[in-house]
TrEMBL record:
Residues 111-320 form the Tryptophan synthase beta chain-like PALP domain. Pfam families: PALP. InterPro entries: Trp_synth_b_CS, Trp_synth_beta/beta-like, TrpB-like_PALP, TrpB-like_PALP_sf. It comes from Lupinus luteus. One of its GO terms (molecular function) is tryptophan synthase activity. Keywords: Amino-acid biosynthesis, Aromatic amino acid biosynthesis, Lyase, Pyridoxal phosphate, Tryptophan biosynthesis. Its cofactor is pyridoxal 5'-phosphate. Its EC number is 4.2.1.20. This is tryptophan synthase. GO terms for cellular component: cytoplasm.
Amino acid sequence: MACILQGAYVSSHRQFNDKDGSTPRPCSSVVVRAVMTNLETMKTTLCVPPPRPLKQRTELMSEGNFGRFGGKFVPETLVTCLSQLEAEFKKALHHEVFQEELATALREFVGRETPLYNAQRLSEYYKSKNNGEGPEIYLKREDLNHCGSHKMNNALAQAMIAKRIGKRGVITATGAGQHGLATSAACAKLDLECTVFMSAKDMDRQYSNVKFIKLLGAQVEAVNGSFKDAASDAFRCWVENLENKYFLTGSAVGPHPIPTMVREFQSVIGKETKKQALKKWGGKPDVLIACVGTGSNALGLFHEFIKHEDVRLIGVEAAGLGLKSGKHSSTLTNGEVGVYHGAMSYLLQDEYGQIIQPHSIAAG
Ligand SMILES: Cc1ncc(COP(=O)(O)O)c(C=O)c1O
């Protein structure tokens, strides 16, 4: 199982070099039907934590706070804007017309629902290594969405909200380019201006995404540094244009209501998975596995199952050259609590609370 996570899954996403013009189409979510027989191996190889008790899993203290995490750590200037967003998000959740329009767009523009694909040969491969025993592995094919990733589920829904609150355009930041691509497509559909901030290095590494973003009519702003710096510049640009522009994040990070909103719009992944599992084998999956970058696909897959104690939820972070090497991007496994970009979270930071650059051989 460790090989599945690292070889077919996390690394394949992380190692795409996209200069040849082929857009990466990684698959972010794995659903395992049968109980895995070698969880012990997984624990040691991947530092998989033990299952969390139900009480902890469902502990949401108040809106926007998840235990001690989340919240809204922002200057006064942003409070009105975030409150307006929160009100609009809540309205949209129960607004029949919005929900109807979103459902239609997800079906006809994004191409949902995505298949829950039985990866037969992969399952057989692992069984053949373990006396015929092993998990049935299914892949939730979010890569088949329009523009090639789960990012579209959230980008489209948020762009619809931006339109509803009368914004003229959208500002965003992207690392690997998938979120930038999804956002530019959503903006093209809804006739919104779109500015995508991206580090110059990532632009080079994800050249084909940049090309498509521009073809879709968006403006790309090159930033020195990494995704973190691109996100900061995007934020700065938004703060200067609060009246007309909407900050559309693809990450489940940032001040309330952003993480809740991203989770909500990505939860379509888990809802479909639950329905499809019931239809395919008449039950629930035993284990759900998702890569964790900023957490959006993982939350989208897990949220529907969070109250089901019999379903194990496993998020996989990139361990890079090893957790002890200092060259990794495992913020949850190795980070410390701090406030960054408006919310409390686990961060890779130095003794002075300065953010440490995560190590990644891939874009973002
Ligand atoms: C295809 C794909 N999967 C996963 C991720 C990781 O992000 P998240 O954890 O928000 O799903 C990214 C980030 O860009 C992505 O492009």
